[in-house]
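It is time I had a proper look at our fold encoding. Can you supply me with one protein entry, sequence and fold together? It will help me judge whether the discrete encoding reads sensibly. Leave the record below and I will have a look:
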Amino acid sequence: MPCLRSAFHSLPQGSRLQVSRCRGTSIPPATKDPGETPPVSLPTGGGCRWFWRTAFQGVFALLLGLPGLLPCGVVQAAETAPEEIEFYESKIRPLLAERCGACHSGKTTNPKAGLRLDLPAGWLTGGTSGPAVVPGMPAKSLLLTAVRRLGPAMPPEGPPLTESQIADLTRWIERGAQAPERPVTGQATTGFDFQQARSWWSLQPVVAPVPTQPVGADPRSDLSPLDRLVQGGLQRAGLSLAPEADKPTLLRRATFVLTGLPPTAEELADFLADDSPEAWTRVVDRLLSSPQYGERWARHWLDVARYADTKDGVLMYGDNRIRPYAYTYRDYVVRAFNEDLPFDRFVHEQLAADQLQPAVEPWRLGALGFLTLGRMFDNNIHDVIDDRIDTVTRGLLGLTVACARCHDHKYDAITQADYYGLYGVFASSEVPLELPRIGGEEGQPGVSEFEAELAGKQQGVREFLDGQYKLLLETARARVGDYLVRVATTPPDPLETAIFFLSLAPEDLRPPVVARWRRYVAARAVPDDPVFSLWGRLLNLEEGALAAPGVVEEQLRQVGERPAGTQAGEVNPLVLAALQAAPPRTRAEVAQRYGDLLKRVWQEATAAVPAADAGAERVGDVVAPDPAQVALERGAREQLLEVLMSRESPAWFPRGQTRRHMSRTETDAFGGKVNELDVIAVKSAVAPPRAMVLHDTPELHDPRIFLRGNPARPGDGVPRRFLELLSPGGLKPFGRGGGRLDLAEAITHPENPLTARVLVNRIWMQLVGEPLVGSPSDFGTRSTPPVQRELLDYLASRLLRGGWSMKGLQREILLSATWRQSSADRLEARARDPENTLLWRMPRRRLDLESMRDTLLAVSGRLEQRVGGRPIDALNPLEARRTVYGLVDRQNVPGLFRAFDFASPDASAERRPQTTVPQQALFALNSPFLFEQCRAVARRLPSGPGVENDGWIRGLFDTVLRRAPDADELADARAFLEAPAEGGEPLPGQLSRHEQLVQVLLMSNELMFVD
């Protein structure tokens, strides 16, 4: 039948076919294949033939055992993917610079073997052995052969590359070895001209344009300032606005855009009967005040917030990966949109609801899920913070600040200091073990029992953590000698900077503590340091020289000539005395003398043992202390005590890092206890809602730039602060706590030109179908300036004038003649503006996943309108709640979600992909969920004796499509229902003939697309 064929083959004019694959944070349509190709956007028609030809070539390549053919061929034809460049800049470039740059870069006039690895031309041309990298073919790339040490071992000095680093290189080569044509120097940029950088269009102040009525333009009196801006651009191109769409089309378009649902029969009848000038305004106001509005628009924001109901550690958490209170963030967003919470306040609550004064209502604490519901990265806190920086800056500012983690940004004026200024903000926050309760009915059966069980388990977690923290600190101080011996006698171990340790036993030294001692001693082993200058002198000697008679004594004598004291250039008398009492003969003995002294001073201080009366002067039988000598020794002791007790001590760490220092057994035990808090909440049907909050740590983090992004190599300190690019009045350190509220206020400051532009661009994209700026999460210098820049600035200024009201801005857009245009194609307009950048018509678009599923439920009469609550299984054919409440499993996104372009919850999504793939039609043909809705629709219609097929068909069209069938459709449907059944009655589970006709309409383009 025609309708059935259209479900497979009809595409809206101007649509584009995309071949998608899994990359970075995207969701693959079916499987994750590391050899899949990057998205290639093709026009319909000839592009389809190209797609199938390429697909068959790929099948043959796989059958022949040549998987490299498909990605290589397509990568060469595809445009360079921005995320591949980001991967290169964050992972590959620093690695090549640090481990290969000394021998194979422009830093040397004669690169070894004639190979340069700081330019694409260098690794593609290769050296004396041939190309070092063959894009798409890791097995043929000599670079991988060398780092795997299958031939000449590279790098020749230092430890071999880790498995993770080799995996990054392999992935990079598989994906085409994409990189910008610039040297890999490994050096930070010499500086940015911020004044020049602020001349970029998106960084200039938002100034409202003054629209004028174009000469000879559309004479209609209802043109708004928005319309006049659009009409001016159209007139310059010799075009004009399209005629207004008819009433049914307008009502359907607005209802889907604002609520994600089709209009009811009553709503359509009321609108058609209302001939007053205010009819359309009443429709828009009714939809904006609908509870379903918040559900629809919350889902758009949840894409930006990378919302998911689960953690990402499948191996770590297994079936217990669900976050029992994640839904409180989703419910907060729904309520905030329904209440038209001003966007600036929306931002403040999502970043710092716990710090606002006066204190917010409890439900608003759920806003902090914006920060806490991201991936956990196997408890790698540095990646967690990076994810938060990326979500905040791309989602709210349209800047890729996370690209400055390892080096200054290569395209935008964003420095590493900017990145680590923000790093310090989020490093100064932690998620508490006890989440605040924000709702729930008092006296509900079972609640008090649940709360008592939860309190008991929380107390167990607190006691366990406190005990481990105290034990680990004491052990780190008591074993200071062992740590110093390790530092003095062994080279650095890569495990010292690893994130977790699989076989850490209680007696093992803690790798993070070893790493901190290495950095601490290296920084202080300088000639003028009172404590560690002797360490530097002795350990700079050869091992044999230490054992030679008199060498150590001579070094001690020379140092002993310096004044005794604790200031720079002096020598700590206790250190000198300890080494003179037993001169060390090996590196280990040097470290042991230091360790014994530090441990003794610490034990005496903590045990309150009075120090010996050194320097006392005997007068007769009375000992008279020398005040100067007593003060000197007291100062010397305090200086040594600081080495073990201060916050800068390698033996100290904040309580929040206790888990990282535990032994494997204790880590597992602690993880199990923490996980139990979630498990009992998931299993309990009466667990009250709690907010996924975070709060400032007791000890705020003073950030330092990580060289190459490596936390084991801290560099210069930076204050917690905002981006210099967005601080034309000068940088000011954040002064309130960790700085989250300061950051929120800086983001929403009226003089910050980005936030309003980024927001209105997202709003326009959801209302119209296409954004004004093609990269909604990147307004930096790699973005394409918008054709409709005046319109963007008008909307941004309108948002600011309207007090950041999103509903107010949406209302103005929906009331405009531009938005009310028809979606009909015009050949003359398409010839002049094929991409519709001048807005000469409204784009036609397909329903997204949520609107599609909710529409099927709505027309079947089964849709449940209850707002909020725990997530549901959206794949259950009998589940009738809206799709926004469906459980989002971060690492197991359902096939239905993936087939219909659901946004990846792994990272902030700027927009959803738009694909047309066979799985979408197969869902309509075979899905048990669709079958259930077909049966429900059929049950809604009168049937049985006396009901004619024509009447049933008319009722079906009215129920599903809100119109009557035309003569041809009526005849085709009647013939289908009256045709002899093939094979007798349908088997159990199969659809009847009437239900099959319902299926045809439910999968039709007319239902699945919005004009």
Remarks:
- The first strand starts at residue 16 and ends at 19.
- Residues 646 and 731 are 30 Å apart (CA to CA).
- The chain is about 45% helix and 5% strand.
- The chain has five domains: 21-186, 225-295+782-845, 320-439+696-768, 479-652, 849-1010.
